[in-house]
Amino acid sequence: MSSSPEKLRFTEKLSYGLGDTASNFFFQTFNLFLLYYYTDVFGIGAAAAGTIFLAARVVDMFSDPIMGYIADRTNTRWGKFRPYLIWMAIPYGIIGYMMFVVPDISESGKLVYAYVTYIAMMLAYTAINIPYSALLGVISPSSSERTLTASFRFFCAFAGGLLISMFVRPLVYSIGGEENEAFGFQATMAIFAGVSVLLFFMTFKGTKERVHPPVGQRNNLKEDLGALFRNRPWLILFFVAVFTLANVAARGAATVYYFKYYVGDAGEALFLIFDQTSIIMTSGMLGLIFGVWLSKPLALRFEKRSIMIWFSLLNTLSMALFFIVPPDEFGMMLALSIFGGFVAGPTVPLVWSMYADVADYGEWRWSRRSTALVFSAALFAQKMGLAIGGAMAGWYLGLVGFEPGAEQGPDALLGIRILFTLFPAGLSAAAIVALYFYPLKSKELEQIELDLSARRAKLSEEQAEMA
Q1: CA 452 – CA 143 distance, rounded (Å)
Q2: Which of the 8 DSSP states describes residue 79?
Q3: Neighbouring C-beta atoms of residue 410, cutoff 10 Å
Q4: 10 Å Cβ neighbour count for 331?
Q5: What is the mean pLDDT of the chain?
Q6: CA 278 to CA 257: how far, in whole Å?
Q7: Average pLDDT over residues 322-341
Q8: Residue 215 above 70 pLDDT?
């Protein structure tokens, strides 16, 4: 009988989590500020900016599975996935910084620059984040340990997002002022880029890979992809990711516009150095941070699928209710923001632990483990959702007659309100429908874990006898 998997040290779980702090410094900046930066600071149209987001996904269609394939076949003394944290950290930081440099060139030249830097950043994000995400699937053979590690990951991710929500706008205005937001963004993102590089190094140093592919597994992309597309739980999570991240992108892109043009936030400090927009962003992230820690105790008592459905329903309701809140009811907005973040919190680590469960299911069902391919496809689904949400936000703003920096007409204001409330709520509802069909339950996962443990122990014994 095989021994139970070792429990991970607190320091290893924290080290793993810091990698998503690094990722989220840019992810959250893109989610909350990039569309605004492109339209109101960089100087390109909303529809053109939306098209940039979608064009990058064409590249991702090829780069994400290729990166997953490469990572699964990487073999070094540091493991399969950890080396990429060292190899890609510095390029990731440099390219992320370059996105927020405004070159003194023509408008068409700026558009080309935006395309090149955004697509380059998505490639760098792919090259470091697919191996980082796959690391969760091999850090422990235990589903419950992975769920707890995922909680650390997203606590750290949301802590990074919290820093972005709290300090980007104040730093931009402190460094550059309203007259030079471009320099403010450039200097601010230089700081976060440098810290990101250091955090990825810390993740590399503090983690270890413990789960390996079955002995004798042949490297065959066709077979890996065939197993992936026959993997019904993964297919369902793919659509959940697309709808969820489209919701996140659309709402995130609309946040600054909603508070600047509908609520009337002029950037003046309401509390300490924070304006209304920063307070709302920060409150939502605080709610997420506290909500994350519910994932482990909830997963011990209830099915992951049930938790995802019910908490997503509550989050959907909180987004929809924003539509009826008058612009002067900031207290009600604050309460809804905290509540929405809190109920969304447990769902994020749970869905990533479900991806690791799906990798186990694939190995159990077809005797092929392609952890990075599973996570690369998941990351592609998320980036597709982000692109769809961001592109639709940009196109929709153009459709309703939005004019950057001008007083908005009734149609534009209504469009901004819908984009921040009802539109993301509808996308969230679509994700809930997809979740209803997710088949893996706790008893099945326990049996899969036992079967895989027995298989691995038997293979180890056979190897020892042959040696």
Answers
A1: 12
A2: B
A3: 9
A4: 9
A5: 89
A6: 13
A7: 96
A8: no
Helices and strands per DSSP (H, E), number in the chain: 19, 0
One CATH from 1.20.1250.20, 3.40.50.300, 3.40.190.10, 2.60.120.10 for 14-206+221-456 = 1.20.1250.20
- What three-state secondary structure class fits 274? strand
Cβ neighbours of residue 66 closer than 8 Å, sequence gap 6 or more = none
- The strand pairing partners of 79, in sequence order, are 76
- Is the separation of the CB atoms in 427 and 389 below 8 Å? yes
Q: Give the helix/strand (H/E) hosting 200.
A: helix 181-206
Tell me what the mean pLDDT of segment 10-33 comes to: 95
Looking at the DSSP bridge assignments, the partners of residue 274 are 271
Contacts of 74 (CB under 8 A, 6+ apart): 80, 81, 83, 84, 131
Confidence of residue 177 (pLDDT cuts 50, 70, 90): confident
Q: Coil, strand or helix: which one is 271?
A: strand
Nearest to 244 by CA among 378, 101, 149, 372: 378
pLDDT score of 2: 46
Rounded Cα gap, residues 376 and 69, in angstroms: 9
Burial call 77-109: b when 16+ CB within 10 Å, e when fewer: ebbbbbbbbeebbebbbebbbbbbebeeeeeee
316 against 372, higher pLDDT: 316
pLDDT band at 251 (very low <50, low <70, confident <90, very high): very high
| All structural domains of the chain with their residue ranges | 14-206+221-456
Highest averaged pLDDT of the listed ranges 60-69, 290-299, 315-324, 447-456: 315-324
Rounded distance between C-alpha atoms, residue 54 and residue 48, angstroms = 10
Q: What phi, psi does 271 have (nearest 5°)?
A: -145, 120
Confidence at residue 1, expressed as pLDDT on a 0 to 100 scale:
41
Q: What is the CA radius of gyration of the chain?
A: 22
Q: Are 353 and 150 in contact (CB under 8 A)?
A: yes
Q: Which two tokens stand for residue 369?
A: 């483990």
- Rounded CA separation 131/80 (Å): 8
Is the whole-model pTM more than 0.90?
A: no
Query: Residue 467 pLDDT more than 60?
Result: no
